[in-house]
Design goal:
single chain, globular
Length: about 260
């Protein structure tokens, strides 16, 4: 007899799937209402670019390391997928160093143009959006990043599940999930979703623009470092314990469907 968890899994799956649909769809509609035309255009282009960046990053690393490229994913894999605790520090360090190197190369390409920018909002740090994320409210930013981390890591676990039809196109599917999450929740001041995406470029920006990047916006730096990781653990929990069926029960269902 199937367990209560396995019986409830399809209903949880429909609940979670519809909730994801509503968050991203309604979020993108709300963003369209509260953002200017310029910011809407920037959000679309940035979200697409970040999604493609995630896809390319996974393609470059998946066959060797599993393509985490995000500390939030690594920590969630540690908690729920049996990822080796001995590798976590090394993975996160490598992710941070990779993002730092990427920030340096972007600065080499754009340093002159960025220096010539006329920052109309003097309250924003000059590194905002280009290298670091920010928010008009620490609480709003925290909720935003937790929700985004939840959605993205939930999608990662669902896509890479052995029972998922999307597993064969996982890098593209994960990249599209990142784009969708960003379109639904990002603000003009950007959204991290990935702790390495903010902390390492912020550290680089500290050497270029000054160490006030860590005190900017009421010490906002800790939000994109902690919140996506907390959201990611929550997303992995929801998938692994509410949506996903036991492997043995799933195998029984597949055998029944094949006969």
């Amino acid at each position: 007899m199937p367990s209560l968890r396995n019986v409830a899994a399809p209903y949880w799956a429909e609940f979670v799937g519809t909730m994801v649909l509503a968050i991203i769809g309604l979020g993108s509609a709300a963003q369209g209402l509260v953002s200017s035309q310029v910011h809407r255009t920037e959000a679309i282009s940035s979200s697409i670019a970040w999604g493609l960046a995630v896809t390319m990053g996974i393609w470059a690393s998946d066959h060797v390391s599993g393509g985490h490229i995000n500390p939030a994913v690594t920590v969630a894999r540690l908690v729920f997928s049996g990822f080796s605790a001995a590798k976590v520090v090394g993975y996160v360090a490598a992710q941070m160093l990779g993002a730092f190197a990427g920030a340096f190369l972007v600065w080499l390409n754009y340093s002159s143009a960025l220096a010539a920018l006329d920052h109309k909002n003097e309250e924003l740090h000059p590194a905002t959006a280009a290298f670091i994320t920010s928010s008009s409210s620490t609480w709003f930013g925290f909720v935003n990043e937790v929700t985004a981390g939840f959605l993205f890591v939930l999608a990662v676990f669902a896509i890479t599940d052995n029972a998922s039809n999307a597993k064969t196109i996982a890098p593209l599917a994960v990249g599209l999930s990142f784009t969708a999450t960003s379109l639904g929740l990002s603000s003009p001041l950007a959204l991290a979703i990935n702790p390495a995406r903010d902390f390492a470029p912020r550290l680089f920006a500290a050497f270029v623009y000054g160490f006030d990047v860590f005190t900017d916006a009421s010490f906002y730096f800790w939000v994109p470092l902690i919140a996506p990781t907390a959201g990611g653990i929550l997303g992995a929990f929801v998938y692994e314990w509410l949506v996903k069926r036991d492997a043995e029960y799933q195998h029984t269902l597949e055998e029944g469907a094949a006969n």
